[in-house]
Design goal:
Keywords: Membrane, Transmembrane, Transmembrane helix, Transport. Its main location: membrane. It is found in: Membrane. This is Muropeptide transporter. The chain has 515 residues and is mostly helical. The protein folds into two domains: 187 residues, Growth Hormone, Chain: A (Up-down Bundle); 194 residues, MFS general substrate transporter like domains (Growth Hormone, Chain: A, Up-down Bundle), CATH 1.20.1250.20. The chain is 74% helix and 0% strand. The protein has 25 helices and no strands. α5 packs antiparallel against α9. The protein is globular, with a radius of gyration of 23 Å. It starts with 28 loop residues before the first helix and ends in a 16-residue tail after the last helix. The N terminus is likely disordered.
Length: 515
């Protein structure tokens, strides 16, 4: 029997046909993995790193500039429409259609920028639309990656996707912003659109078309009924708030004055992650009723709604779902606490200049992290996740104690830049190894029938640990002191480590029948 083609999922497609042989040359998997994840990070960085600079340059107030953080909301909410990417057309078509729309919107943003401050409301709407399209693009890329690659190849390329995503962000933060400063915002954004158009052309030619087509996009219209009205009203309200800068600023000020201090530290994205977790737990308790409702919907001809619900139900029907959710939520707890207090420690105790810290993190730190992710992914592909989960988890979290050592030294302020760089590089390398293990595990939690939807769910859940760290980190560091606090960042990982012997999917993805 012929061996499976390199870089292509070795399972049968939905039509019962084995995938065609893998493409050669430029069509090899490492090429499209790199270009698609560059294309994923590129518009994300435009929305999250360039929009606030543009608004400030056009004369927006500091309150309005702060509200540009709301543009990140679609990435927090993308699990809501992830199931549609699974159930309609193919992920390749979603990917290409998203890139067409993203290119057009970036061109429109460039033209609007020429109007100056008068165009701020229209720019706000444009960036919000770009964010929705980019989040949808992310869902399609992640689903396509999971669809075409076998579990082994998913592990192999996890480092390449991280590297490509990071390079895209660096390109926006550096050369693109410099181009905008040199030639003006219109020329700079048109240049950004040209890059996106080139990526679209590459992907139209490069991406293998090996998926089984699902329902056509036209059938999405059948879901438009009274049931969707609450969602349309909510979207209208969000759009109205986005346009009403003064109202948004007043609401934000009122919230900060009335709410407890620790609650104001939770971002909107953090609240969404918490709400998703609470909703999943509620759905878990109501699974029998949900199954009955889905059967009724299917019998009534509401296949679209039944399929949408099945994304969430099938996620919760996985073996040992409670252990799996706890593991996902706790995996990055120690790292989250460390990252929140890294710069305050180097600023207040070590006396490091911000420029030096940024150079060390952006240089040695970034390189070390990418190397860790690439090496970790290849080792997992070679030997399996179970073989490397413990070494990588320990590398990710034991290296936190290097910060503790710096804080306990006789004179932290006398620490040389070489030692600080070495500590940052070592910690980032360990973080890269941990990221490789975590990303491989997250991919294994995705049911083959609902790859895009499930990955969108677990991606949203990842934010919960960062939210908890954001709320508690400052209070704990102030109460414990930095030395004890960094020791705590390691202890905070112990509950996750206790779960490792019991969680599913370490050897391979387990089906719901495995329980």
């Amino acid at each position: 029997m012929r061996a499976p083609a390199e870089g292509v999922n070795d399972e049968l497609t939905g039509s019962g046909q084995a995938p065609a042989p893998a493409p050669t040359g430029l069509r090899r998997a490492h090429a499209w993995v790199s270009t698609t994840y560059f294309a994923e990070g590129y518009p994300y960085s435009i929305v999250n790193n360039l929009a606030d600079i543009l608004f400030k340059e056009l004369g927006a107030s500091l309150q309005v500039v702060g509200l540009t953080s709301l543009f990140h909301l679609p990435w927090n909410l993308k699990f809501l429409w992830g199931p549609f990417v699974d159930d309609y057309e193919t992920k390749r078509r979603w990917l290409l259609a998203s890139e067409v729309a993203i290119t057009i919107v970036i061109v429109l943003l460039g033209l609007l920028a020429a109007a100056g401050s008068a165009s701020l409301p229209a720019l706000a709407a444009g960036f919000l639309l770009l964010a929705v399209l980019s989040a949808t693009h992310d869902i399609a890329i992640d689903g396509y990656y999971l669809e075409l690659l076998s579990e082994r190849d998913q592990s192999t390329f996890v480092g390449y996707r991280a590297a490509a995503y990071k390079v895209a962000g660096l390109l926006v933060k550096g050369p693109l912003i410099a181009l905008c400063a040199l030639l003006g915002w219109t020329a700079g954004l048109l240049g950004a659109a040209l890059v996106m158009a080139l990526l679209l052309g590459i992907h139209t030619w490069l991406l293998p078309d090996r998926e089984t087509r699902r329902r056509p996009w036209t059938t999405l219209a059948k879901l438009a009924s009274w049931r969707t009205l609450p969602f349309l009203l909510a979207a209208t309200l969000l759009y109205g708030l986005e346009r009403s800068w003064a109202v948004g600023t007043q609401l934000l000020a009122a919230w900060r004055s009335l709410a407890p201090a620790w609650l104001t530290k939770i971002s909107v994205g953090g609240w969404i992650g918490i709400a998703l977790l609470a909703s999943l737990l509620a759905l878990l308790a109501a699974l029998p009723a949900l199954r009955r409702r889905m059967r009724t919907a299917g019998e009534a001809g509401e296949a679209g709604l039944s399929s949408y619900a099945s994304t969430f139900v099938s996620f919760l029907e996985q073996p040992k779902i409670g252990l799996m959710l706890a593991f996902v939520l706790l995996f990055r707890t120690g790292e989250s606490f460390l990252l929140k207090m890294s710069w305050p420690f180097f600023d207040d105790v070590v006396g490091l200049e911000l420029e030096s810290y940024a150079a060390m993190q952006g240089g040695a730190g970034t390189i070390a992290m990418l190397l860790g992710t690439i090496i970790g992914g290849r080792l997992i592909a070679r030997d399996g996740l179970r073989r490397w989960i413990w070494p990588f988890v320990l590398a990710q979290n034991l290296l936190n104690l290097l910060y503790m050592g710096l804080a306990m030294s006789t004179d932290p302020g006398a620490t040389s830049d070489t030692i600080v760089t070495a500590v940052l590089a070592a910690e980032n390398f360990g973080s890269g190894l941990g990221t490789a293990a975590f990303m491989v595990y997250l991919m294994r939690t995705c049911d083959p029938r609902h790859k895009a939807g499930h990955f969108a769910i677990v991606s949203a859940l990842m934010s919960v640990s960062f939210t908890v760290a954001g709320v508690l980190s400052g209070f704990l560091a102030d109460a414990l002191g930095f030395a004890t606090y960094f020791g705590f960042t390691f202890l905070a990982t112990i509950p996750m480590m206790v779960l490792i012997p019991f969680v599913p999917h370490l050897d391979r993805r387990e089906s719901a029948d495995a329980e």
